[in-house]
Amino acid sequence: MTILVCSSCRDETGSDAHPRAGERLAESARRAAVGQGITVRTVECLGNCKRRLSAALLRDGAWSYVFGDLNVSSGDDLVTGAQLFSTSTDGLIPWRGRPDSLKRGLVARIPPLALIKEDK
Amino acid sequence: MTILVCSSCRDETGSDAHPRAGERLAESARRAAVGQGITVRTVECLGNCKRRLSAALLRDGAWSYVFGDLNVSSGDDLVTGAQLFSTSTDGLIPWRGRPDSLKRGLVARIPPLALIKEDK
After folding, report:
1. Would you call A110 and B64 a contact, using CB atoms and an 8 Å cutoff?
2. Would you give the DSSP letter of residue A21?
3. In the list A60, A78, B66, B86, which could disulfide-bond B107, CB 3.0-4.6 Å?
4. Cα B61 to Cα B89: distance, rounded to the nearest angstrom
5. Which candidate from A54, A107, A116 shows the least CB-CB separation from B41?
């Protein structure tokens, strides 16, 4: 289970100052993930620049999720979502129990390629 | 190379009538993809409901892309993007040569899990 945070995201001020808001979100996620068996990684850009702070939840063989409209303290919500995801048996993150930020902030979900190949 | 179209997307009228706009987009993509070695699949929901007609471009071992703000005739653009993607050597869709709809419409991109694991 991996939380992938976009480290280049700016906050609502649009400031280029470092650490960027995205880096602070990644740090928040790392703190929340300690001892949880969840990996936190950063990436330069998730391409979701229209909806500010972004992160993805990725799990082998499951759907991939991208969330936006996060803030620098959303690390706890991301870890809660990742834990929920890890309990899923159908490769989807259950809606029930999902933090509000991961309901409102859903940007996209992509099925695993293996699932698509089985289709039709 | 797979084009994955959200078949449940509605057009700007919000109509529930079938075929849904997303189904028409999928049909447009299928027509454009004939003989191109590109697979077109549909999925019930890509979760990008805030930006209307959506589709993803997926390639084994490469980044996954989600686009929104498409229309029922965007099949040609999706196939052009898929062809461009198939020529890529770094797992990313080149910006240059990308149809405008796939520049403006970028919703998110997700790196392959293998790439993330190599990180750090």
Report:
1. yes
2. H
3. B66
4. 11
5. A116
pLDDT in tens, B36-66: 999 999 998 898 888 889 999 999 999 999 9
Question: What is the rounded CA–CA span in Å between residue B23 and residue B40?
Answer: 12
Lookup result for tokens 């650490």? A19
In angstroms, what CA-CA distances link B92 with B25, B50, B95, B107? Answer: 24, 25, 9, 15
Q: DSSP per residue over B55-103, as a string?
A: EEEE-TTS-EEEE-S--TTTHHHHHHHHHHHHT-SSSS--STT--HHHH
Q: How far is A17 from chain B (nearest CA, A)?
A: 23
The interface pTM score, or ipTM, of the predicted complex is: 0.90
Contacts for B3 with CB less than 8 Å, ≥ 6 apart: B29, B33, B38, B39, B40, B41, B55, B56, B57, B78, B79, B82
**How distant, in Å, are the alpha carbons of A3, B11, B65, B107 from that of A68?**
13, 23, 15, 10
pLDDT along chain A (120 residues), means of 10: 93 86 96 96 89 94 95 97 96 96 96 72
Q: What are phi and psi of A70, to 5 degrees?
A: -85, 175
Give the pairing of strands A39-43 and A2-6: parallel
Contact residues on chain A for B95, CB-CB shorter than 8 A: none
* Residues of chain B contacting residue A6, judged by C-beta atoms under 8 Å apart: none
